[in-house]
Amino acid sequence: MLKVSAVSYLNSVPFIYGLKQSELIHNIDLQLDYPSICADKLINGNVNLALVPVAVIPKLKDSYIISDYCIGAVGAVDTVCLYSDVPITEIKSIGLDYQSLTSVALLKVLLKEYWQLKPELKKVDIGFEYSIKGNHAALVIGDRAFDLNTKHAYIYDLSAIWSEMTGFPFVFAAWVSNKKLSQNFISNFNIALEKGLSDIDRALALEGDNYLNCTNPEDYLNNKISYNFDSEKKKGMELYLKKVSAL
């Protein structure tokens, strides 16, 4: 049985639904984790396939992107943001979300190339998103961001800023295996994901009970998250990984 780790955020609900509705679900051990745990499991060989932050791909001994779908955004995404009560030029320190890998590296790229600022970057623990005040800001990703989008004076949406800076969409996570998988499995896997994406309303009805802090999940999944892993996203991902390697 193939062990699979998927992200436990709202943006993955169509994927989870599609897999659960397919025959594949009987042949995989599906585990739900936050992004940095998905990455750790794949790196350590605890799973063989995962929806991982793309920043982890260069860290894998063997990596194979196996899907036509990803977690991406063309412009603002609403759930990967730097939150602050002061303008970014006045920020002295930033808490870095412990659930994130790709977005932390993206923030570092933007601080260096876009804002040209060097605030203190701090590791943080559970509950850090409630410590934003004064000149201390925080990078928050995933579903916890929904509650913050009306609470702070300054919100910097990282994928929107990335697109402004580079002209490319952004890829947060991709389906990556650490070993070669059969073409038959890959084909069926993509069919399952496509099924989930083709019926987002049904996916939310069956798998969306834990995401009530999003006021409009249909809009979020249909208009903020961009799932097709197309050529522009691949170019954007390659550019991102190049910039991260130069940090």
List keywords for this structure.
247 residues, alpha/beta, D-Maltodextrin-Binding Protein, domain 2, 6-stranded mixed sheet, 5-stranded mixed sheet, 36% helix, globular
Name the helicity range.
Answer: 25-40%
Could you name the ranges where pLDDT drops below 50 across 5 or more consecutive residues?
none
Gross geometry:
globular
Order of strands across the widest beta sheet? Answer: 2-1-3-10-4-11
What is the percentage of strand-forming residues?
15-25%
CATH fold-level assignment of the largest domain: D-Maltodextrin-Binding Protein, domain 2
Counted by DSSP, the helix tally is 8
CATH architecture of the largest domain: 3-Layer(aba) Sandwich
Report mean pLDDT, rounded to a whole number.
94
- DSSP, total strands: 11
Taken in chain order, the helices and strands follow as: EHEHEEEEHEEEHEHHHEH
Structural class: alpha/beta
Euclidean distance between termini CA atoms: 39 Å
Largest sheet: 6 strands, mixed
Notes on the structure:
- There is one protein chain.
- Strand 6, helix 3 and strand 7 form a beta-alpha-beta unit.
- This protein is of the alpha/beta class and 247 residues long.
- The protein has 2 domains: 2-72 and 170-230, 3-Layer(aba) Sandwich (D-Maltodextrin-Binding Protein, domain 2), CATH 3.40.190; 80-166, Periplasmic binding protein-like II (D-Maltodextrin-Binding Protein, domain 2, 3-Layer(aba) Sandwich).
- The mean pLDDT is 94.
- 36% of the residues lie in helices and 25% in strands.
